[in-house]
Specification:
By secondary structure, the protein is mostly helical. Helix content is about 50%, strand content about 0%. It has one domain. The protein binds zinc ion.
Length: about 140
């Protein structure tokens, strides 16, 4: 199975879950904040509807929550690991204030990515890849 045929590709590349060709979002760069939330209404490649019903992406909030928890766990694990390396004074990186500030900063920096990734994951839960649509030009 080619990487482009996997659900993970569709999610990471923010591609249409049906054909893995068309972009989910109008502008690929999530950090162009003006267009952060602007999704294509339909897939530019296969015409798949990206807005199946009003409020479809409400459920993406649960995905977003899960990603946020995962991010916090990753931050804490990274801080504990770096602290154990002892490059700076022991205990500084694992101090609750350091963890909190690092976590909040990471969250703010990654917010646009988390927003888009949670939507990409959400639509991938409902729309399955169709290799035939992929080939269609
Ligand atoms: Zn498509």
């Amino acid at each position: 199975m080619a990487w482009k045929d996997t659900m993970l590709y569709s999610i990471f590349a923010e591609k249409c879950p049906k054909c893995h060709e068309g972009d989910l979002f109008e502008v690929r760069n999530a950090y162009k904040l003006k267009s952060l939330t602007k999704m294509n209404k339909r897939c530019p490649h296969c015409g798949e509807n990206f807005q199946p019903e009003p409020g479809f992406y409400f459920g993406a909030a649960y995905v977003s929550y899960a990603l946020t928890v995962a991010l916090w766990v990753a931050v804490i694990v990274a801080l504990i690991t770096f602290d154990a390396l002892g490059w700076i004074e022991y205990g500084f990186l694992t101090h609750p204030a350091t963890s909190l500030i690092t976590g909040v900063v990471m969250l703010l920096l990654l917010l646009p990515v988390l927003y888009r990734q949670s939507r990409a994951i959400w639509i991938n839960l409902f729309v399955k890849f169709d290799p035939e649509k992929h080939k269609k030009v």
